[in-house]
Structures are given as structure tokens and as C-alpha cells.
Amino acid sequence: MGIKSTAFGRVVLTDADAKKFKNQVTYGKPKKEAASGVSIGLKLSRELQSKGAITFSLNEMA
Fold first, then answer.
1. How far apart are CA 35 and CA 29, in angstroms?
2. Is-contact 33 25, C-beta < 8 A?
3. Which of 9, 15, 21, 30 is 20 to 30 A from 3 (CA-CA)?
4. pLDDT digits (tens, 9 = 90+) for 30-41
5. What are the Cα distances from residue 3, in Å, to 17, 18, 20, 33, 38?
6. Residue 34: in which H helix or E strand, if any?
């Protein structure tokens, strides 16, 4: 993989990886799990903004 990063957060991609990343961002489709995570995150963010705190429970994975 051609990714290099620094302590200051800069990431540099090689030419091939940069093209692949650009195509993935432009044409890629999110997985259902990613869309679900964004939905849950937005709900928690709105709850935090309105109430000043969030409430959640942990589920045991089977």
C-alpha cells in the first residue's frame, strides 16, 4: 500500500492509490453497515445537541 502519514495528520498516496481512492469516492457505493452507522451517528449527534448528553446501550454480538 502506498500510504504515508506524519504525526501532524498529513497523508500522501502514491499515484495508483490516489487514482483508486478518487474513483472509489466518486463512483463507490457505501455498504449497508456504513449507511447504518452514519444514521446512528446522526441520531446521537442530534440528541447531544438538544439534550447536552447522549444515552446508548451496548448489545452483545452473537
1. 10
2. no
3. 30
4. 889 999 999 989
5. 8, 9, 12, 25, 25
6. helix 32-51
